[in-house]
Structure prediction request, 448 residues.
Amino acid sequence: MNKRKLIISSLVAFFFGFIMSQNLSYAQSKKKQIESFNFKIDSLSQVISKERNAQKNTLSSLEIQESKSKQKVDSLNSEIKTIENKISNQQNDKQIIESNIFRLKQEIEKQRESLKRFKTVKEPN
Amino acid sequence: MRLVLVMIFVSLHLIGIAQSKKKQIQFLNAKIYSLIKVQYTEKQIFETRKTELESSLSNSDYNTSKLLKTLSTKKEKLNNQIQENQKLDQEVLSLQMELKTIQDSIKTAINKMPCRLLDSGLINITNEKLINLMNVQDKDLGELFVSYVSPDIKPIYEINGKQLFELKRELYCMVVMGVTNPNDFHMSEGTNFIACFKIKENQWSLVNPPFNTSVGSGWGNPASIEKFVLFGNQRLAVILEEGMGGQGSFYEGRIIYGLDNSRIQLIYSGEKSYSDDYSNKNWDIKFIDNNSDYFNLEIIEKSHGKKVKTRILKFNEKSMKYE
Prediction:
């Protein structure tokens, strides 16, 4: 009877020991897995942070370039407008000058006729 | 039995730990998945924004290049316009100079134009008005023109003659007014006033104050006009004649007043005729164009109608007289 009890106790102890060892090994594996995950999370966080910085820099640089480019476009548009105004002024001036030329030519023609008359008319004493 | 209980307790504890680890792993997995998702989303947002910015930049670059071309074209157009206007300005300058030259020539021609005597019939102003315009008052004549008989007898003003003429394209009129002295004695002389009017748009204005000649014939009469004459291409003169007779002789004098640069002055005084029981002389005059500012004055002396002497007088510009 005692022998049978001993055998059963030994079997239970063995079984328990076996389960314990299995459990221990499983726990070890989980721990490693958790460590690996933690490492992965840290690594991912770092990558994300670096990427964020890089993206921020890239976008910032692009935004500066875009702003400069827009400023240049605005400046060119403004310059074009100024030149267009100048052209318009010059065209107005041209019209005035041409009208002056026309008037002067008419006046010259008139004065030439007068001069001709003066030269051809001989006054009697 | 005690051993079994311990084992069960240990087993339960271990199972609890295992469950906790499992949940932790699940949480970590979810975290990793979430991080990957965040990374992916951020990358997508970044790429979209980057594409937007690059597209905007590209558009801006394209616009810039297009605007630069437009600007260059406009600048060229402006330069061309400026050059064209400069040429036109030059043309204006050249035309202005040409006009000035012609105007100067006209001015020179006008300045050289000889005086032109016009028909005095064209004068559309009455003698009364001319007398008023000359504005000579009795008090200007002096005491010799106050009647010795009665102060009510006043000098008489009459227009003796007028000559319309054109000088340097302006219209003028020389007017000679005679004033009869109220004292009609043998030795009392009348006088004449000579004035020059400028006529512009029918408005008469005196060029100079009336010039009192202070010469006249006897019996209170003023001198009479022989004629108006040119003594230079641009100079008009009036020849007056005065006369005096008595004791068988008769004398006539000739006085010439010239208008020179808006001034009236005596330029010649000499005999016209003289007659008595023995002699009968007269002197004819003629102005001769000598191509200078003042003509020469030729005086031909005749006795009984025959030429006896000819003299040529030149105009002395210092004394302003024929000598």
Residues 46 and 52 of chain A are 10 Å apart (CA to CA). Helices of chain A lie at 2-120.
